Amino acid sequence: MLALMGGSLLVTLTIAGTIAFYSHLARQYDLSKLGEMPERTVVLDAQGEMLGRMHGENRIVVPLSQVSPFFVKALLAREDSRFYDHGGIDYVGVARATVRNIKDRRVVQGASTITMQLARNSYPDLNDRSFHRKMLEMMLARRIEGYWTKDQILEHYVNRIFFGTNLYGIQRASQVYFGKHASQLNLSEAALIAGIIRSPVRFSPFRNFDGALKERDDVLKRMVATKVITTEEELAARYADIALHAQPAFQSQGGYALDAVRRDLDRVLEDHEIEDGGLIVYTTLSQELQTLAEQSVEKRLAVVEKLPGYKHPTKAAFDATWDGTQEVASTPYLQGAVTILDNATGGILALVGGRDYRQSKYNRATQGQRQIGSTVKPFVYATAIASGFLPGTFIDDAPIQPGEIEGAGAGWSPQNSDGKFTGQQTLTYGLVQSRNTMTIRVGNYAGLDRVLNLLGDAGIGSSAERTPQIFIGNLGGTPRDLTSAFSIFPNDGIRRRPFLIDKVTDKAGNILYSTSLLEADVVSPGVAHLMRRILGQVMDRGTAASVRSEHKFKEPAGGKTGTTNDYKDAWFAGYTDRVTCAVWVGLDKPQTIVDQGYGSRLAIPIWADVVKKAVELGYIPAGPRVEPPLAAVQLCHLSSQLATPACAASGTAYDEKLPYDLIPQGNCGAHQGVIAAPQYEDQPRGRSPGLLNRIRGWFR
């Protein structure tokens, strides 16, 4: 008897010690974090509309109140019918499972409650199959029941359920299998999803539809047995049609714009802050404008593909042969890219990197370094104006002579696009009509280094080779960079850093990152004013006149077309007082697009569509632009200095209004017997003397 009592006491002490030990271990887990589940990061546009999701587990957390009652009943009937009666451990279920397993001489029935499963699914170290894990799981379940309410436990569980590869929680399961919100599941659908929980890969209705139906029917029978539905309801659900609406486990990533957001997010946050997802990313994008820009690129380029003489594969032909899965390194069909930003902040409103993100992930708006052609010319002319030239200064539109241009090869003599030369013309004419020979001379007078410095300050040409060919566009740039650079003209000479991400918060609203507005002075307000005056004329009567005449764009604006040799790249970059936009059109492997494939013909239609939509959406200035104070002066076409009576007598004087900081400080000396700029002994032979030396020469 004493031995029996001693043995019983030993067993009791052992059990008590085991319980105490595992209870102590269970207390080391932080139960407050049980509801913190990795889910995908949400990306919002500037109006708070969802653009897409990225990173983290493929889960959308929903409250229990937004889950179909049918699913809750089906889940409890299948997994834990006594859930609301036990305290985390179902001793009745344990006894029943033990009897069944002894009877069958194998483990055919478990006794894990939903609370125990939640504990196991919430903490990675509880995933092994061992006595130690089971005991810890049971003690942890008891703690969970004391910390959370039953409905809270159930809510955590339905959001943690694993439904197969990259699929977590009832909301995403409902969306992927049936294309509906979890609250909309009917009895048959709810029972099917509940039935596949124990083996979601094996019984996925996409892989094993018959097996999924068999599991559904088993769940329905259990629901009848537990009296949560009637026999009539079970029969109707069993014979109900199941309409699967297959959706990708990972929804569309939002194309090129969301891809750019993802890349920027990787730069502003640490990996450990990103990988678990669950963040809210507030972007500067406008979903309406983004959609319109994507549609315009597709529509306008499809029209180009139908032009007489267009010889490349069309996108429609490529689509007909594409298998729907294989991404290509470079597409054979015509591509386009767009960036539009808000001048006031630098925030990017829309970004299109190509025609089809599924076929090519290459983002031409942010990665496509292509020759920018004549869109570089405004920066050459801005440098010249900052160096003392003025809109009425005469520049010779004549063939480039050997040795005339510093750093040019002996045989370099570019032509104008029309093959003509028009003689002495004003600086304004040279930019409005995009005259190559005049632009080269303007750049040479201003100085290559000065031009390169201004381009660098504007955000383009950082890796450009030091060659005068830069004056007419022999340097690379992306639509995003060019858009930012052009924004200096409506911004009174200031460049604001372009950005996509306004701020990032966690789900609790804590700010993890916020963008600061960064800006730098590139040119003076006076120079920007004169450039706006000239670039406005490019739209009114120059190479971009179709913006007004054909596309009926009426807002105050300016811009510049660009076309590279043999029509391989077509550009248009332009602005209003509120937005700046650049458009590129070309083939991934540079080739002639089509004969006469100018930027005015191929890129302007897209620009007009996008910017008109921006105006429609309210991206317009709050009031009239405040221009810098102007003074009326009389100048000389030859010297860019204040005109004298001799200038008037020779017919070179003209009236102008200038910002005060650009008014010349000296009087013209060009008509004191010195008309042409002389060569000086300290000046290399064949080198143009530059404006300041020319002025000094007139006074000698």
UniProtKB/TrEMBL annotation:
Please list the residue ranges annotated as the Glycosyl transferase family domain.
48-223
Identify the metabolic or biological route this protein is part of: Cell wall biogenesis; peptidoglycan biosynthesis
Family affiliation: In the C-terminal section; belongs to the transpeptidase family. In the N-terminal section; belongs to the glycosyltransferase 51 family.
What organism is recorded for this protein?
A: Prosthecobacter algae
What start-end ranges are recorded for coiled-coil regions in this protein?
none
The enzyme's E.C. designation:
2.4.99.28
Record domain Penicillin-binding protein transpeptidase: where:
336-611
Matching entries from Pfam families are given as: Transgly, Transpeptidase
Stated name of the protein: peptidoglycan glycosyltransferase
NCBIfam families documented for this protein:
PBP_1a_fam
The catalysed reaction is: [GlcNAc-(1->4)-Mur2Ac(oyl-L-Ala-gamma-D-Glu-L-Lys-D-Ala-D-Ala)](n)-di-trans,octa-cis-undecaprenyl diphosphate + beta-D-GlcNAc-(1->4)-Mur2Ac(oyl-L-Ala-gamma-D-Glu-L-Lys-D-Ala-D-Ala)-di-trans,octa-cis-undecaprenyl diphosphate = [GlcNAc-(1->4)-Mur2Ac(oyl-L-Ala-gamma-D-Glu-L-Lys-D-Ala-D-Ala)](n+1)-di-trans,octa-cis-undecaprenyl diphosphate + di-trans,octa-cis-undecaprenyl diphosphate + H(+)
Listed A to Z, the keywords are: Carboxypeptidase, Glycosyltransferase, Hydrolase, Multifunctional enzyme, Protease, Transferase
Which residues constitute the signal peptide according to the record?
none
